[in-house]
Amino acid sequence: MQQWQHFVAVTLAVLACGVARAGDAPSAAPDPARLALAEQIVAASGGADQATRLMRSMFGVMQKNIVANSPADMRDFVGPMVEDMSQALVGMTPQILELNARAYAQTFSEKELRDLLAFQTSETGRDVANKLPALQAQVMNELFPLLMTAMPAIMRKSVDRICEEKHCTSEQRAALEKAMSKATGATTS
Predict the structure, then answer these.
(1) Which of 28, 35, 68, 185 is 20 to 30 A removed from 168 (C-alpha atoms)?
(2) Domain chopping of the chain, boundaries
């Protein structure tokens, strides 16, 4: 795969790690009082506007890095592709906020939620919320090149370890390497 495709795959994997998967959430409905507090926390931290700014910031960094790592003939595709992905995720903001509120309500006690809400509504809490998009952009700007550089070696080590432990045949090793390469765009050899 081209380097830009590897970058997109790694980027999406990183983004996926930052979003709770529905299958990982506890199945019990959260306590209504805790859910109400959690919804206030989400709103106090900027709600939909903050979530949209964070996603736009992340996708802006992603677009810059993808363009920098794309073959010249593919650069005309990068902007529209990243914009489509950005719009799709921004459109999911209500569900993302709902998942966050439920996760907070299921994770924290009522006292912890009240304390967190007090922080979020404080001057410092509001300042932190306003600075998060720039902070996230800075971290992602430095994280992507690191991940792109590290992924092939990490995959190679993982394949080696698993194949040693499971006594892979050469065909199984090749299939595993192909699957990992396809999933991330990185090559293990």
Answers:
(1) 185
(2) 3-141
What is the 8-class DSSP label of residue 186? -
- How far apart, in whole angstroms, are the C-alpha atoms of residue 57 and residue 54? 5
Interval 127-184: pLDDT, tens:
988 888 788 778 878 887 888 788 888 888 988 998 999 998 999 888 888 887 776 6
- DSSP, collapsed to helix, strand or coil, labels residue 169 as coil
Gap between the Cα atoms of 153 and 71, Å rounded: 23
Q: Which residues contact 43 (CB under 8 A, 6 or more apart)?
A: none
Q: Give pTM, 2 decimals.
A: 0.59
d(C-alpha 31, C-alpha 104), whole Å: 11
Give start and end residues of each alpha helix (H) in 74-169: 75-91, 93-107, 110-120, 123-166
Tell the residue number behind the tokens 């050469």, with chain if given. Answer: 170
